[in-house]
Amino acid sequence: MKGAKTSIQEVMKTKFPKIPYEEWAKVAEKGLGSSYQSFDEYENLTIKPLYTIEELEKIETILSKDAISQNHWFIAQNIKGETVEELVENVKIAINHGQTLLSLKIPDNWTIHEMNAFLQEVNLEENSFFIETDILSVPVYSLFDQVLQKKGLNKNHLTGFIGSDPIEYFCKGFLTKEDCQLYYDYWGQGVQFAHQKLPNVKTVLVDGRIFEGAGGNTIQQLAYSLATAVSHVEQLKKSGLSLDEIFEKFVFAFSIRSNFFIEIAKLRAAKYLWAKVQEAYGFKTPLHKATILAETSFINKSKFDLYSNLLRLGGEAFSSVIGGVDYLRIHPFDEFENVFGSEFGERLSRNIHHLLNEESKLSAVCDPSSGSYFIESLTHSLIEKAWQTFLEIEEEGILQALSSGRIQKELASSKEILKKSFDEGKLVLIGTNKFTLENDALLENIFPKKIKEDKVKLRLIPIEELQGEIKLGEKLSNFTRVVTKQSNFIQPIVSFRLSEELESSLMKGRDENEA
Questions:
Q1: I need a labelling partner for 42 at 20 to 30 A (CA). Which of 17, 23, 101, 472 fits?
Q2: Contact status, residue 340 vs residue 79, Cβ threshold 8 Å
Q3: What share of the chain is helix, strand, coil (3-state, %, to 5)?
Q4: What backbone torsions phi and psi does residue 155 show, to the nearest 5 degrees?
Q5: Residue 437 lies in a domain
Q6: Which ranges in 305-372 belong to alpha helices (H)?
Q7: Does 106 reside within a domain?
Q8: Sign, Cα dihedral of 379, 382, 388, 393
Q9: DSSP 206-259
Q10: CATH of the domain at 247
Q11: Residues 6+ apart with CB under 8 A from 228
Q12: Can you give the pLDDT of all 515 residues of the chain as single tens digits?
């Protein structure tokens, strides 16, 4: 009746009709429009238009809140410097601006003298660190040992990471299969040596970034990383370390793209899968959680409309934190594979950490995505498919799969699908293949270019002899030699960016016009 009043009691008695899932799905699909795809060809995943609580009744919650007591992460921005003075100055600037981890690379031309001078100014007992050594992990362990002894520092007070992933180095295609096994054995000896000299420092890296950079989908990144980890475990068992000592040394590294929910699920799946591997090795309760370094991807960054890269960086950092990483590195918006980022870009990237932590208070929330119908289901799908792919690789092992070209072939297939999606405009990079600004300037010759790395391999000399040479002041670079190309090298895995061809085409056109 018009004008009649409804009492609160009558409202409380009102019951809404139960709408079938199919009806809700139709509404969701209509809202999503043409952008909705039930099957993601690239990711090899079926994405439903709507997720409900019934999804969680079919699967276990992947990570309980009891598994994560906090959501703290270390700010792992790269600190650059070639000389002692330059590196010390940049370390101080980073710390003054809130950096919580010394993430740096020891220059190849350093000796024990430069390292000693550096540690005169920087106290590693008070600052945790993350040092990626590439092929020089064993000489760097020896260098640290010598300096610690000389300075009388307590080796038990050092915490952080020093090391590399030998599989990642093999993927660069600098070695034969026979060389790979020789280096793998030597690397294992180095990890055992570091366990004695630097007992609380992690030394084993599983680098999934190289698979992502080559176009690998999420399932491939997880499966190949897991196969790499198991290969490391088997290799280190030969060195005499116990399983407990081996597992505590691991750090996983992943690149994070802008596919927000899939990246969160990827990180959560990685933790679950690592726990399952530990169970397979006989641990009743997994003792060592997956320690993860996440860094923003280069594959979707563009030299067109540079500031649009900032939006991608923010989303990628956000999903990394939601996924629960231990170390987070946000590359400057104007840094690329051959160009260093600007000081302004470095500052903005560091400040994104502070925004997520201090402004958004994400560190105050434990495992915020736990219980999400969509993310839990997505994580479960990634776990099942990645585990199946991992088992297939384990039939021959990751090293043999690389030697035969199987991994390279699978990555190339994924890259082709991804590139086609970008070229056809289905995968959109704003400012690059859609809404491109006219006369948009490309980043060329503005900032210092990175020096192209030589193809080198390590001199495999006994660690006792290595110790003596380090003590006498030998440069780190003197423990390597330039590689001569051989026909039986492992086929390299090469990273790329989606916008590279567009950028090259534009530069070529401009050069022709100027001519």
A1: 23
A2: no
A3: 50, 10, 40
A4: -65, -25
A5: no
A6: 308-323, 343-354
A7: yes
A8: negative
A9: EETHHHHHTT--HHHHHHHHHHHHHHHHHHHHTTT--HHHHHTTEEEEEEE-S-
A10: 3.20.20.240
A11: 165, 167, 206, 207, 208, 398
A12: 455 567 787 777 788 888 888 888 888 888 877 556 688 999 999 888 888 888 777 676 665 444 455 689 999 999 999 999 999 999 999 999 999 999 999 999 999 999 999 999 998 888 999 999 989 999 999 999 999 988 888 889 999 999 999 999 999 888 888 889 999 999 999 999 999 999 999 999 999 999 999 999 999 999 999 999 999 999 999 999 999 999 999 999 999 999 999 999 999 999 999 999 999 999 987 778 899 999 999 999 998 888 999 999 999 999 999 999 999 999 999 998 777 889 999 999 999 999 999 999 998 888 888 888 899 999 999 999 999 999 999 999 999 999 999 999 999 999 999 999 999 999 989 888 888 775 555 555 455 556 556 577 788 999 999 999 999 999 999 998 887 766 678 899 999 999 999 888 877 765 556 55
Rounded CA-CA distance 142/355 in Å is: 39
Q: How far apart are CA 114 and CA 112, in angstroms?
A: 6
Instruction: Report if residue 98 sits inside a domain.
Output: yes
Within 13 Å and on the Cβ side, how many CA atoms surround 492? 13
Residue with tokens 């293949």: 433
In a domain, 498, yes or no: no
Please state whether the predicted TM-score (pTM) of the whole model is above 0.90. yes
Q: How many domains does the chain have?
A: 1
